[in-house]
Amino acid sequence: MALRPKRSVFAASIAVVSLLTLVGCAGTDPHPVALGTEQQVRLYERANTVAWRALSAEGAAGESPDLRVVAISDGPRWTGNMSGCLENRGVVSFQVAEDGTVTLSRLDQDNGFGKLSIFICHAQYPRHQDLSLFLSPSQASVLYDYYVDSLQPCLLTKGHEITTPPSRKLFLDQGSTSARWSPYIAIVARHALSNTLSDSSGLAALKALCPPYPAWLTPS
What we know:
mainly alpha
């Protein structure tokens, strides 16, 4: 049985998921052709392999593990899959939440083993919304238009600073990665320093400022 953690120290979600938590209500948006689940799985596995190589280059990872997807799930089934994987790897004190967050005890945090185990287990047991981050070219093109033509001008009129958007070509090249540009990036980074968007009410206020994400990008 997993022990209650002494201290919350680590979020298992891929970095871009923090931006997707800003998604608003579904609207009447275009529905471009999406990638199939098999294509998304391949891209997800490829991204995790690249990330593991980066960890290895930094000396933070050991022998390359099996990063192939075992099962895709959500809710209680996902928390069960993650908990079972972490227990099988020998992580003792942790807590898994349905929003994709995993917290570790101070001991598992300090020795680094817990963090690597979370990475491996999350690679093997993704949620459906983790795969939905990988967009087809037509989806990325519609998202770019939304960011540049709708969201960015709205945020500017509300007094928020934003980063310079990349070219359409560069954005499309990022369409199947977790490094996509978003007008929210500068806002989230700036507020993170002052801790002004740390609660749900702050995020909700930011979401309500402007038109929501395209409906097909909104997690169900």
